[in-house]
């Protein structure tokens, strides 16, 4: 049960670290029509690190579409997302179900349709691992992380980062994670969580506001 | 709503007397036709699972497939698939399960819960009837001494619950809502250990 909860929180934390990222390689770009391998990885790495350091806060809405490939079944949900540097995240799913997750440092609140739970990240090894990934991302050191192998592509408007987990506990849940990042401000346009089964969850961020004043109360519980 | 589900579950438990005291009676075919469980139509539910003091939530999909198989899929709200079960012509297959759930006792418990929710035991024709107090039990044999019942009031005016047990109840399913195949809420309450699954129907954005 703890591991399941950890996996859910790991997804939320991945939401957080997707706001600061990178990596390299150049092959099989047929996987991503419209994108070609990035030619200057070193430059991108530097720019991305610099840009991510400037993002102090994010406020956004999102649309999430979960596709169950074998069952030809989709479910679309919507909600709101907040991030405040360095370690505050809040997700509110508002439709068609309600679900709230707040991460504030080591503490996590999960409130679903049925119950409310408070969790300490320190109490779980997987939480700690994810926390480390999160901090690596925020600090820009994720580029050197051994937790993922990665490839980077680009088109006129954005960068596409394909991140494949190396660690087994993450591999159990994701085949890879694909981020599409805006060139104009290095904010995340979409994130695709691709599972080993072929199922996937695509989250598209809309109405983004970067570096606006976010009160700490948003993340208080 | 949570209180209602909890109350009905407790009520089901308190009403669950040992089967030894059941008194056999002739089958009321009209009542069988009226309340024999028919399973669940394709639906998404918000799910809360409480087991031995731990709580987990997510989304549960029950899907009727074109090949007449049925799938039960549980995912997190944020999108990760935890398990995917297939029930097809008397067979059961785990199509997918995360490592933490790949334990025989977990799979078997969930299999029985959802098999019963899908009314698979009630597809067989041989049903017997018995009474206990002011309740009528319509039962079928599942495995060994284990039996599945749907329980009505003595006037056959309401379906009170579905129940599985051998000498005593193992778990009960209580549903609410206007349509039996599309219940608004479902509570699966285990009686031999502390586990309850609460489901609440989701009206989704259709993008099939």
Number of strands of chain A: 12
Biggest chain pair contact, residues each?
Answer: A-B, 44 and 40 residues
- Helix amount of chain A: 10-25%
Order of helices and strands of chain B: HEHEEEEEHEEEEEEE
Give me the number of helical elements of chain B. Answer: 3
The CATH class assignment of chain B is: Mainly Beta
Report what the structure shows:
Chain A: Keywords: Lipoprotein, Signal. Chain A: This is Outer membrane lipoprotein carrier protein LolA. Chain A: InterPro entries: LolA/LolB/LppX, OM_lipoprot_carrier_LolA-like. Chain A: Pfam families: LolA (PF03548). The complex is a heterodimer of chains A (221) and B (208). Chain A is of the alpha+beta class and 221 residues long. Chain A has one domain: Clam (outer membrane lipoprotein receptor (LolB), chain A). Chain A is 22% helix and 41% strand. Chain A is built from four helices and twelve strands, in the order H-E-H-E-E-E-E-E-E-H-E-E-H-E-E-E. In chain A, helix 1 packs parallel to helix 3. Chain B has a 13-stranded antiparallel beta sheet, with helices on both faces. The two termini of chain B are 29 Å apart. Classes of the chains: A alpha+beta (221), B alpha+beta (208). At the A-B interface, helix 1, strand 2, strand 3, strand 4 and strand 12 of A face strand 2, strand 3, strand 4 and strand 5 of B.
Helices and strands, with pairings:
The complex is a heterodimer of chains A (221) and B (208).
Chain A: H1 2-17, E1 36-37, H2 41-54, E2 57-68, E3 73-84, E4 88-95, E5 99-104, E6 107-111, E7 116-120, H3 125-138, E8 148-154, E9 158-165, H4 168-171, E10 176-182, E11 188-194, E12 200-210
Helix pairs in contact in A: 1-3
Chain B: H1 2-15, E1 23-25, H2 29-35, E2 43-51, E3 54-64, E4 70-75, E5 81-88, E6 91-97, H3 104-117, E7 128-132, E8 135-141, E9 147-153, E10 159-165, E11 169-176, E12 185-190, E13 195-201
Antiparallel strand pairs in B: 1-7, 2-3, 2-13, 3-4, 4-5, 5-6, 7-8, 8-9, 9-10, 10-11, 11-12, 12-13
Protein name (chain A): Outer membrane lipoprotein carrier protein LolA
InterPro entries (chain A): LolA/LolB/LppX, OM_lipoprot_carrier_LolA-like
Keywords (chain A): Lipoprotein, Signal
């Amino acid at each position: 049960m703890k591991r399941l909860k950890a996996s859910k929180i790991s997804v939320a934390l991945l939401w957080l670290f997707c706001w600061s990222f990178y990596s390299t390689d150049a092959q099989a770009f047929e996987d991503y029509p419209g994108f070609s391998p990035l030619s200057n990885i070193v430059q991108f790495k530097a720019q991305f690190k610099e840009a991510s350091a400037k993002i102090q806060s994010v406020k956004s809405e999102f649309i999430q579409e979960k596709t169950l490939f074998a069952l030809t079944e989709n479910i679309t949900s919507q909600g709101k997302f907040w991030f405040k540097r360095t370690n505050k995240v809040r997700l509110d799913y508002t439709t068609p179900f309600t679900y709230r997750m707040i991460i504030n440092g080591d503490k996590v609140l999960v409130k679903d349709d049925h119950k409310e739970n408070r969790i300490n990240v320190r109490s779980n090894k997987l939480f700690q691992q994810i926390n480390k990934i999160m901090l690596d991302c925020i600090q820009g050191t994720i580029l050197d992380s051994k937790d993922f192998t990665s490839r980077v592509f680009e088109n006129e408007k954005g960068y596409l980062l394909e991140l494949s987990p190396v660690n087994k506990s993450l591999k159990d849940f994701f085949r890879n994670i694909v981020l599409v990042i805006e060139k104009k401000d290095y904010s995340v346009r979409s994130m695709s969580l691709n599972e080993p089964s072929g199922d996937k969850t695509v989250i598209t961020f809309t109405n983004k506001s970067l570096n606006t004043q976010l009160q700490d109360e948003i993340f208080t519980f | 709503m949570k209180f209602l589900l909890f109350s009905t579950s407790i009520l089901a438990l308190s009403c669950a007397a040992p089967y030894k005291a059941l008194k056999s009676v002739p089958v009321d075919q009209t009542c069988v036709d009226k309340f024999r469980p028919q399973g669940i139509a394709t639906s998404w539910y918000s799910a809360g699972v409480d087991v031995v003091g731990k709580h987990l939530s997510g989304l549960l999909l029950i899907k009727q497939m074109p090949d007449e198989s049925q799938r039960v899929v549980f995912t997190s709200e944020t999108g990760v698939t935890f398990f995917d079960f297939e029930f097809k012509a008397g067979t059961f297959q785990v199509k997918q399960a995360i490592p933490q759930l790949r334990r025989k006792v977990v799979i078997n418990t969930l299999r029985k819960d959802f098999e019963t929710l899908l009314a698979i035991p009630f597809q067989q024709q041989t049903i017997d009837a018995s009474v206990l107090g002011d309740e009528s039990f319509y039962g079928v044999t599942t495995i060994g001494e284990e039996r599945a019942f749907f329980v009505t009031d003595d006037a056959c005016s309401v379906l009170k619950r579905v129940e599985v047990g051998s000498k005593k109840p193992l778990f009960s399913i209580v549903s609410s809502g206007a349509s039996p195949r599309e219940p608004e809420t479902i509570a699966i309450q285990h009686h031999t250990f502390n586990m309850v699954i609460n489901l609440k129907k989701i009206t989704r954005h259709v993008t099939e």
